[in-house]
Amino acid sequence: MGKCYGLQKSDRLFSFAKYFLKHEMDRGCRKPGAKRIRVHDLRHSHASLLIEKGFTPLLIAERLGHEKIETTLETYSHLFPNKQNEVASKSDLLAAKGAKNPDVANRI
Question: Which of 53, 78, 79, 101 has the greatest count of CB atoms below 10 A from its CB?
Answer without folding.
Answer: 79
